[in-house]
Amino acid sequence: MFLSMDKVNFGDWLKLESETVKRVRSHLRHLLEWADETPLTKARSIDPTLQTYLLTARADGKNKNLAPTSIVRCLANARQFFAYARAEWPHRYKPISESWISMLLPPRHIRTDSRLPVRQYYELEDVLKIASVSTETLLEERGKVAVCMGFLSGMRADALATLPIYCVDLEARTIDQLPEAGVRTKNRKAAITYLLEIPELLEVCKEWDQRVRTLSWEALWYSTLTTDGMNLKATIKAYEGRNNVIERDVRLICERAGVPYQSPHKLRHGHVVHALKQARNMAELKAISQNIMHASVVITDQVYGKLVNDNVRSVISNLGAHRDDKSELLQLIEILKAQLI
Q1: Among 4, 54, 131, 302, which lies 20 to 30 A Cα-Cα from 196?
Q2: Which pLDDT score, from 0 to 100, does residue 114 have?
Q3: What is the C-alpha separation between 42 and 95, in angstroms, rounded?
Q4: 227-245 tens-digit pLDDT
């Protein structure tokens, strides 16, 4: 989310999404409450330390401690703030050394690498089950479309909720995620992305596509419905927060299909995990990374690099089974070098 400490620029903070800004503000609020009336330039002298304080801190009045992930993020944002402050006001923040900043780490027992993560995502078999369920209403049909398109494309729910019809080309398997067309992407990135080739899911999307193309070409592909839910409406502009509609629709169709509900974002996770399982070389890995609009393969690996246990078992048991030449290894080195430039 942020640049490294030696390249911090407050302008990059201003480019954050509004929801991200809210989270960062809540984390930095803990920093301010910890310091109380002590200037942050004297943070090294505050007792207890920020790490210790966060173990019992709470900002919403609830009688329980912060979640370990919240503590980790609060400290990450604190490190980022102090790094920025040192770069912007070096004389004032001279007492705050880089070594002290680097020590703003959570206790070992709550660090992310001290716990086995629970990977949550929709697996293909669950999505296929949803795709095959019969629907009785347009609302249920729309929910099925949300699941199928979310898994096929890996796009975020806010992008799907704001996508105009003319940005969808199912024959070419392309989605134009263009902010200039009203598509709300993370950090307003623009890209042409591609769909997975899964016939059963594509068929669901094609049926919906034929239905919505009776509307204006500028209308939302994930169409709004009339009040009685019986017909589509040619809505041109999505209201802020329309992604909540997708969450409701996905929950509804999951209940009908008998599939455990997970948030729409887990469809994106499912898309990536499914694609990574099929990848056989670095070129394919890079294509997957670009298709989900990550800035680099490194980011994709950081988010999705920890494979599920069955994948690890399969890879380990087959080590050395295929003795390819060094071309893929050299390609990997070149890609990683490019990320460091």
Answers
A1: 302
A2: 52
A3: 7
A4: 998 999 999 999 999 999 9
Task: Domain ranges for the chain, please list them.
Answer: 5-114, 124-267, 269-340
Residue that the structure tokens 């920093």 belong to: 31
124 closest CA partner among 256, 269, 255, 253: 269
CATH topology of domain 124-267: hpI Integrase; Chain A (1.10.443)
Residue 57 clears pLDDT 50, i.e. is over it: yes
pLDDT digits (tens, 9 = 90+) for 88-123: 999 999 999 999 999 998 887 776 555 555 568 999
Q: What are phi and psi of 231, to 5 degrees?
A: -140, 160
CA distance 22 to 85: 20
Q: Are 154 and 300 in contact (CB under 8 A)?
A: no
First to last CA, the chain: 18
Q: Which of 189, 214, 204, 188 has the alpha carbon at shortest distance from 149? A: 204
Give the C-alpha separation, 117 to 245, whole Å: 29
Asked if 205 and 146 touch (Cβ cutoff 8 Å), the reply is no
Amino acid at 37: E
